Amino acid sequence: MASRKLTLVGGIVAALALSTTAGSALAQGFDWKAHKGETITFLANNNPVASAILKHQDEFTALTGIKLKVDSYQEQQMRQRLLTVLNARSDEVDVFMTLPSREGRQYAAAGWYTDLTPFVKDSVSSDYDFDGLGKALVDAARFDGILTGLPLNIEGPVLYYRTDIFKKCNVEPPKTIADIQSAAQTIKKCDSSITPFASRGLKPALPYTFSNFLHNMGGEYMKDGKSNLCSPEGKAALQAYANLLKDYGPPGVVNYSFYQLTSLYRAGRSAMSFQSSNEFPSVMEGGARLKDTAIVPLPKGDGGSVPTTIGWALTISAFSDHKDAAWYFLQWATSPKMQAELALEGIAPPRQSVSQDPQYKAWLEEQPLRQQWQKTLDELAKTGTSEVGFPIVENPESREYIGQAVDQILLGEADVDTACKAADEALDGLIARQ
């Protein structure tokens, strides 16, 4: 099945006509105080996007008079909590974060999202500029004509690498996936105290990074309605990714997701870290890595360069008793003003951009690495695909089988032929049930 391409013409940072006071957002016929005194509950994923938004939650309450109750968890715990609430059709959660590329089809089929189309048509302030949101990411959150969420950011896995270690070990920046393995091998011999290469190894989380390997190496998840992991390209990608983590990754890498990767790299204990562009603020926290890091898309493979490009969205539970107040939170969090502020904290906003805001340009110019980050994100926006896991309703379950295949090879529990065969059989059964 063809990948859903993301083409965000003109870059990814908002064209920013910013208001200087909260009151300036008050448009004729639209009252930000219409739901003053109500309380809404936000189930948040404890990642950089949510953390950045919540730094400004007092501004939301000051603008609207709506109280925000926040329940925040690490990603896996957040998902478990969310499934419990949604399966129970409970009104405990009004607003939650969602990845359309992961659970969008599944949650839409289950009827768990509120259709945002009527809100977008009939209840927006004049300065919201819905059409300014990146069309590709808006479309990625639309299923069977239902608008399930509004994009919060644009992101994808990118390669962070230590320029000082590369120089010390006489390693050239990798231009191909094969070069990553060669570089890791040299670094391991040069400095045994450093983890040469780190990426996600946690079973349900690793498809986010593995998918970029698969596509760059010419593979695809499905062909002619069947799972395609045992294609030559699929097996090559499984082997390459698993071998990098097995031979050059950190101990316990099967438990690694974004949090562990960020901590390892920020502490100076990994030479290459293939992880989310979204982690840029956290990776750079404290400033230790600002002067010894470079950022690039994953180097090409036999299939060229096809980066993974997705975005988190904000949505309203179908079971919320406060949908109108919840919509005000969505509108505020995804507004040009808020996304301009988030851009200055390293959260790439999903609004088409001329990148001409003086504050943002000055922020980029303060650090050459920020400019590299921006350039890398521009490349992701132009050439990326949102296909992470199988493009089916049961996408989240499909990721478990992908992760299991990689981890079996990594841990020496199966060779690539055995692992991909077991995965293909399980995935074909999953596809057949759609």
UniProtKB/TrEMBL annotation:
PANTHER family: ARABINOSE-BINDING PROTEIN-RELATED, POLYGALACTURONAN_RHAMNOGALACTURONAN-BINDING PROTEIN YTCQ
Keyword Signal: yes
Name of this chain's protein: Sugar ABC transporter substrate-binding protein
Residues of the signal peptide: 1-27
Keyword field: Cell membrane, Lipoprotein, Membrane, Palmitate, Periplasm, Signal
Subcellular location: Periplasm
CDD domains in alphabetical order: PBP2_TMBP_like
Gene3D superfamilies: Periplasmic binding protein-like II (3.40.190.10)
Key word tRNA processing present: no
Domain of life, per lineage: Bacteria
InterPro entries documented for this protein: Bact_solute-bd_prot1, SBP
Transmembrane segments: none
Protein family (similarity comment): Belongs to the bacterial solute-binding protein 1 family.
